[in-house]
Amino acid sequence: MEEQGPLLTWYAFALKYLRMKWPHSAPNYRDEINEALSGVTKALAPMHAGRPSDAAMQRALRDWAFVLPGPDERSIPPEARSVIDWLVKHSPPLADLNKPAVMRGVLEALKLKLNGEAAGSETFKRKRKVLVNALNYATELGEFEENPVHAVSVKRPPRVIPVDPRVVANPQQASNLLGAVSYVGGYNRARGRRLVGMFGGMYYAGMRPAEAVGVAIQDCHLPAEGWGLANLHRTRPTAGKKWTKSGEVHDDRGLKNRAQGEVRPTPLPPVLVAMWRDSIDTFGTADDGRLFFNERGGLVGSSTYSRVWGEAREFALPPDLVNSPLADCPYDLRHSALSTWLNAGVDPTEVAERAGNTVEVLLARYAKCLHGRHLVANQRIEKLLLEYA
Fold it and tell me: Using alpha carbons only, what angle is made at residue 128 by residues 124 and 131, rounded to the nearest 5 degrees?
């Protein structure tokens, strides 16, 4: 009788899957794989004596375990090594995921953020997709007869989370905030002045931050008068050096929810055209034509523009609003833009096209921000009823 070897544990399998996927994965997908494998590993960690805290496991798994080169191929901090050693010793067999109760526990855990709050639908969907893919690989290896994920059904979080109307700045507030950005940092370093136009792109053209970071002069029409145009086709999101193949902090990819190379023509109102022309006259462009860059000509990181925005809020807003959710982060400028357009009566199809969303998602996300639209609807219904009175 052939002697069987030790059972394959979840942790050992997760490392095997990571090594298979890593070389062919884009930076952001590497991050997603790491996030999902870390979440499953924590969910499966038994409640034995000496179990590391969730925070300690999160740090060890995200920063050291599920990154290549792996933890056995480089030196890692002692505290991370002790956590990983504990997980190696106590990780349950991969076969345990065939038990519906175990699988349900894992899926329920993936519905939560690190702080214990409920995660959004897209976050859960993303992590579940990685788990499905990983266990498809395990099935190919003969560890399961069929993927055990499909044997358990859990209720998914709401698909679209509406935007909190409290984050939406009105046009006057947005103008004050953009003006305040120019006062951040010293005049010579121009830490804020360099980014006024970038934030302006988020508010006046509804750009996502990663789109505004990557916009280049060769993709723009900036006339001396009137409306301009930006043909957006590139984003430069902050991904982190440990995820990108180049070792750079920023990824270089196409537009969100669009095919690689697809272009989204985005109209630029005269106030934004003037803002961008002034930025070019003052600072020029980066070597690759980017309109917005740091003092060394490099890409503007999310931590950099977030700090600038935080300081600008303190300059522009009274204390009660500084401590409120109003325009709390740069992305809220995009929320403010789309809400303003919808409230101005712009056709939702046009708003969705400019923003790079579907009409369905647009209306679901911004329904709570349509101030006074119920009053317009009431008036129209009342008028119709009076015609038949």
Answer: 150
What pLDDT score does 158 carry?
A: 65
Tokens of 232: 């957006």
Handedness of CA 291, 292, 297, 298 (dihedral sign): negative
In contact, 41 and 123? CB cutoff 8 Å: no
Q: At what angle do helices 359-366 and 348-355 cross, to 10 degrees?
A: 100
DSSP 52: P
3-class secondary-structure state, position 161: coil
* C-alpha to C-alpha distance for 210 and 302, rounded to whole angstroms: 9
Q: Is the pLDDT of residue 252 over 60?
A: no
Distance, C-alpha 255 to centroid of its chain: 13
Distance CA 256, CA 19 (A): 27
Strand, helix or coil for residue 207:
coil
Alpha-carbon Rg of the chain, whole angstroms?
25
Contact 306, 330 (CB under 8 A): yes
- Specify the residue for token string 């789109």: 211
CA distances from residue 128 to 29, 44, 61, 217 in whole angstroms, order as listed: 13, 15, 18, 40
C-alpha 147/C-alpha 237 separation (Å) is 33
Distance between CA atoms of residues 202 and 337, nearest Å = 8
In terms of pLDDT, which residue wins out, 5 or 187?
Answer: 187
Q: What is the pLDDT of residue 1?
A: 37
Structure tokens at 31: 């991050």
- Show Cβ contacts of residue 289 under 8 Å, excluding neighbours closer than 6 positions: 216, 217, 218, 219
User: Which token pair is 338?
Assistant: 């789309």
> Global pTM?
0.64
Nearest to 199 by CA among 150, 134, 272: 272
The SS3 assignment for 158 reads coil
pLDDT digits (tens, 9 = 90+) for 253-300: 555 555 566 788 999 999 999 999 999 999 999 998 999 998 888 888
The amino acid at residue 6 is P
Instruction: State percent of the chain over pLDDT 90.
Output: 60
**DSSP secondary structure of 113-154:** -TTSSBPPHHHHHHHHHHHHHHHHHHHHTTS-SS-GGGG---
